[in-house]
Amino acid sequence: MWNERIEERIRQRVAAALWIGIALFVVLSARLWYLSVLRGEWFRERSERNRVRVVFLETLRGNIYDRRGVCLAEDIPRFRLVFLVGSSDEKLVMKRIREILRRDIVFSLRERAPGELVLLEDLPLEDVAKIEENSEHLPGVLVEVYPARKYRDGEVAASLLGYVGRVGPEELKVLGKMGYRNEDRIGKSGVESFYESLLRGEEGYRRVEVDALGRVVQVLDFQSPRFRYSLQLTLDWELQRTCYEALGRRNGVVLVGDPATGEILAFVSKPSFDPNLFSRGLSLKEWLDLLEQKSNPLLARPTQALYPPGSLFKILIALAALEEQVVTSRESFFCPGYLEYGNWKYLCWKRGGHGRVTFEEAIAESCNVVFYTLGLRLGPERIARYARMFGLGQDAHLDLPGVKTGFFPTPEWKREVLKEAWYPGDTMNLSIGQGYLLVTPLEMYLLLCTVANRGKVYDPHVLWRVLDENGKVVKEVKPSLRRTVALRPQTWDTVIRGMEKVVTQGTGFNCRGLPVKLAAKTGTAQNPHGKEHSWFGGFFPSDRPKFVFLVLVEHGGDGSGEAALVARKVIEWILQNRGV
Predict the structure, then answer these.
(1) Coil, helix or strand at residue 401
(2) Residue 269 near residue 247, CB atoms below 8 Å
(3) How far apart are CA 156 and CA 247, in angstroms?
(4) CB 308 within 8 A of CB 302
(5) Which among 176, 162, 171 has a CA at the least distance from the CA of 399?
(6) CA dihedral over 213, 215, 220, 221, signed as positive or negative
(7) 19, CA 20 to 30 Å: which among 3, 153, 312, 524?
(8) Nearest CA to 319 among 484, 482, 485, 481?
């Protein structure tokens, strides 16, 4: 009896142990199946991540060429020494490098990536050769090639080409979602910025195997970075350099382009800066010094600076007056040197007066009295309507970042903002391009293009072609008609004849005698901060325009002087080297 009870207990315990064993086996089997089958790929990936590290290499940017194939911006190779931590003794390696290069060296020891140290940056080519010759004595040391941007002739086209720099923390918040990393370069201004998506290439990488302590064991794989596209611009580099040099030490703008296509051939802004400085990296002090310069060299003056247009605006007044038939081409005026209106005398720039002048002679001599009269006849509303027709204060659609629009004042604006009425004196000031009116040089250039094309306005652009890595054209920018200003043929004819007389008998005397028929207009813009700004713009040949030009010289005095002299140098070079 007693033995039977013991045997029963033993059998129960054995059975319980058996079931427990079976349950543990089932649980462990299920867990093993879960880890090896369901989660196996995840664990293998984690293990691979712990064993293999990927170091991404900086992307290459595409080249930028001018219309004749001159390379304006390119990535050139720079060399750095990278040490794979754990592959050998770090101090011994640095000692050997000093012996090989035969000089005392201060190593940067910057962590390039986990497990990698940058020993030296921007290594000269002769040092690279010495390191490569002695590579067997430098285990774990790699010569890494990285790109640096180089710009042709530095300052000559900086405002157009722009510059590149490292991605900033705020930029990375947005660009990080697009695959950018904190070591990447991006375009910060100009073409480099506007066409960032085309110029940015594909990053390379280096896959290395590390041990349990994170030390590099070997390099498993390597992929060189590459660029995808290069850009060919409408810019004519030789013409660009000529325009830049023609300005000399003056600050200002020179624009030259083809009115029939919208192509920009020269885009000069002075003072300028050297974009190559950004490629090597500016210190904080250097950057602040650049920002604090009163001349503001980083400002792209053709598209971002605002000026009163002065007498250049009289072209629009003349067109509006003829088209609205408040004047005829045969009407004459008398200028005693001023116009009396109410209790005020509004002066002409020629204090002794022009005497009796025809309408075309008024354009040629830029007579203020005549344009005061035309402005009063038109009224501010009609002047504003024609300004809108010609695109003033509207988007110019130029393929560059930060393009500004000018400011065109109206009676409504003055009443709402300044809480003042619009007076006839405001209209007269507006009629000669003064008062509250502000424009960009690009807007005045497009006004000249409109006259040259007799109403047709093409979108200005600086990109001509997109090339693949083999130099094959994959896209070409075609002329795009922006708008048409429909005026009577005789309106265009009369104003263009007046602009021709500016050169042959008027204020544009400094461009007299050129072997081409030139239509132009001078402008003198009053400047509250000093000497007047000097404008001179036009097109040639005047009967079949191939080139439109605009020159602005800051503090250059009247437009018949410095701006016209700069323009003459540019026109003479074009006639000698490009023909018409």
Answers:
(1) coil
(2) no
(3) 11
(4) no
(5) 162
(6) positive
(7) 3
(8) 485
Q: Contact at 8 Å (CB) between 223 and 546?
A: no
Cβ atoms of residues 508 and 527 within 8 Å: no
Cα radius of gyration rounded to whole Å, the chain:
35
Quote the pLDDT of residue 104: 84
Task: Give the C-alpha separation, 380 to 431, whole Å.
Answer: 9
Q: How many CB atoms lie within 10 A of CB 358?
A: 16
Q: 179: which 2 tokens?
A: 């695959």
pLDDT (0 to 100) of residue 222 = 73
CA 80/CA 143 separation, integer angstroms: 6
**Residue from 275, 279, 57 nearest 146 by CA:** 57
Question: Which pLDDT value is given to residue 38?
Answer: 64
pLDDT of residue 457: 95
Tokens, residue 481? 């008609």
| Residue 496 CB-half CA count within 13 A | 23
Q: Cβ(31)–Cβ(40) under 8 Å? A: no
**HEC string for 121-187:** CCCCHHHHHHHHHCHHHCCCEEEEEEEEEEECCHHHHHHHHCCEEECCHHHHHHHHHHCCCCCCEEE
Q: Per residue, what are the HEC states of 106-125?
A: CCCCEEEECCEEEEECCCCH
Q: How far apart are CA 578 and CA 509, in angstroms?
A: 24
Dig out the tokens for 380 from the structure: 């501010």
State how far the Cα of 403 lies from the Cα of 419, in Å rounded to an integer.
30
Q: Is the peptide bond before 541 cis (omega within 30 degrees of 0)?
A: yes
Distance of CA 352 to the CA centre of its chain: 46
- CA distances (Å), 249 to each of 192, 290, 441, 556, 569, in order? 27, 18, 19, 11, 15
Q: What is the end-to-end Cα distance of the chain in Å, rounded? A: 129
Q: Output the six-digit token pair for 60.
A: 């290459």
Distance CA 395, CA 398 (A): 8
As a whole number of angstroms, the distance between CA 12 and CA 20 comes to: 12
Backbone angles phi, psi at 108, to 5 degrees: -75, -35
Q: Which structure tokens are listed for 182?
A: 């904190």
Distances (CA, A) of 439 to 405, 427, 444: 7, 17, 7
CA distances from 353 to 124, 203, 347, 525 (A): 69, 69, 9, 19
Calculate the CA 250 to chain-centre distance.
Answer: 22
Q: Give the whole-angstrom CA distance, residue 55 versus residue 204.
A: 9
> What is the pTM for the complete model shown?
0.86
Return the pLDDT at 327: 96
Joined together, the tokens standing for residue 320 give 């509006």
Which parts of the chain have pLDDT scores under 70? 1-5, 30-31, 33-53, 55, 112-113, 208, 210-219, 559
